[in-house]
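Our consortium's second objective concerns turning raw sequence data into structural hypotheses that experimental partners can test. To show how far this objective has progressed, the report includes one record in full. It was chosen at random from the queue rather than selected for favorable results. The single chain below, 356 residues long, was entered without modification.
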Amino acid sequence: MSNDKAAERQAKIDSIIQNLAGSPTGMELLMKSLKTAGLSLMNIIDSGKFPTVTDPARLANAKKGIVLDTETTGLDHKTDEVIELAMVEFTYDEHGILALGNVYDEFNEPKKGPIPDEVVALTGITNEMVKGHRIDPAEVKEIVGSISIVLAHNAAFDRKMCENNFPDCGFDNVDWHCTANQVEWIMRGKNGRSLEVLALSEGLVYGSHRADSDCLATAFVLNSEDQNGVSAFSEMLSRGNIPSIFLIAENSPFDRKDLLKDRGYRWASDGSEAYGFKAWYKEIPGDEASMAAEAEFMRSEVYRREVALPCYHVAAVSRYTDRKPGKKEFFRTAEVRTLEEASAQRNLEAEPSFDL
């Protein structure tokens, strides 16, 4: 395309956009067209722009939660320290977030030494910014004691960090939900599940890698709806409230590791992610169908025999922590098969019969 034709085409596009942007109806059409193309107009995230629900029926059932994010000196929850803690309070019901509330955002000077250079480069948090600052455990405990749920975009990291850095603040006694793992973002038409990608897909920009900005971004992307009008928040909550089984493929044959990996199992190299077991592990739904499918996979493809594998029952209050969620039990594939057959027989007997 020649420069003249390109300039002419650009001028036409500019004119169309200016005309559309000149009226509310035109603006709505423009935003709809961009969204259809997988794009959006960019808006800076601002808590004051979060849509507040005023429906009395929904407000009558409101509960309270927080969106939480941490910035830390590193990735090891046992040795690294929190240098910034942000918590955005909100009210919610089963359908979504109703309104945002108070914002807690505090720096914390690390006790073990200066902030590593790579963390300063990533977060923009300098040693001068945190000098003399301390997160007050009493304030944190008061906030956590007033809520029902904690949301984090990487709950497996943030929960461990909070429980180890603030052990007496109640983080171990509240339900945690992961906004990254408990929503099928790809099925919702997103190109990934990183917070930056999700925010951009909604036409939102923010200062990433700072705890307070990340919290607000998380709240906004959870407010998005799929084609059926179901919010990401609602999907996350319903998935997280389903009891599950943390299954450990102990002593699995080495040559079957790719089978396990392809099925979503992860390797606990030092045992810290699998309650002390150096093994492949996965969290599966606790319903009969899911357990039957996993038992068949273990029996037929991994061990090629009936096995009894270590497992733990997990719920929202015990998920994403490195504390053992309860006593160790065993996932016995033979028993699961028996239960499956019994269930199938019950269903068969429950079917109506017809005399011909």
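The partners drew two points from this record. Confidence is low (pLDDT under 50) at residues 350-356. The CA atoms of residues 62 and 93 lie 5 Å apart. Both points have been shared with the crystallography group to help prioritize constructs.
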